[in-house]
Amino acid sequence: MQSEDGTCLVLVSAKPELVLTARASSPLLLMRAAYHLGNRHVALEIADNYLRFSPDSVLQGMLEKMGLEVTEEIVPFQPEMGAYGHNH
């Protein structure tokens, strides 16, 4: 982001935090997981090969039962803003 007068440039980056990262054996399985997490209004970071969300043992168990690999990581978390640009 740049100041209005152009003299200052600020870089804003997400702070690393504890998250769960889910990976699937197929794109269809990853899409199914995203559907189920979205249906629960979970703040979700979506990439082409993973889904990332705040730690929740119930959601972790659900995804593991679906066949996804879920691991804990400490990384920057940048969830989607949502269709209307706000969080619930």
Structure description:
- Helices cover 26% and strands 24% of the residues.
- The protein is of the alpha+beta class and 88 residues long.
- A hairpin with a 4-residue loop joins strand 2 and strand 3.
- The longest helix is centred in the middle third of the chain and has 13 residues, at 27-39.
- The protein is elongated and about 55 Å long.
- The model has no long low-confidence stretch (mean pLDDT 90).
Order of helices and strands: EHEEHE
The percent range for helix content is 25-40%
Largest sheet: 4 strands, antiparallel
- The percent range for strand residues is 15-25%
Q: Can you give the mean pLDDT?
A: 90
Helix and strand composition category: alpha+beta
**Strand order within the widest sheet?**
2-3-1-4
Shape: elongated
How many E-type strands?
4
Radius of gyration: 16 Å
Tally of contiguous helical segments: 2
Oligomeric status: single chain
Q: What is the terminal-to-terminal distance?
A: 26 Å
Low-pLDDT ranges: none
What features would you highlight for this structure?
single chain; 88 residues; alpha+beta; 4-stranded antiparallel beta sheet; 2 helices; 4 strands; 24% strand; elongated
Layout of helices and strands:
Blueprint: E1 16-23, H1 27-39, E2 45-46, E3 51-53, H2 57-66, E4 69-76
Antiparallel strand pairs: 1-3, 1-4, 2-3
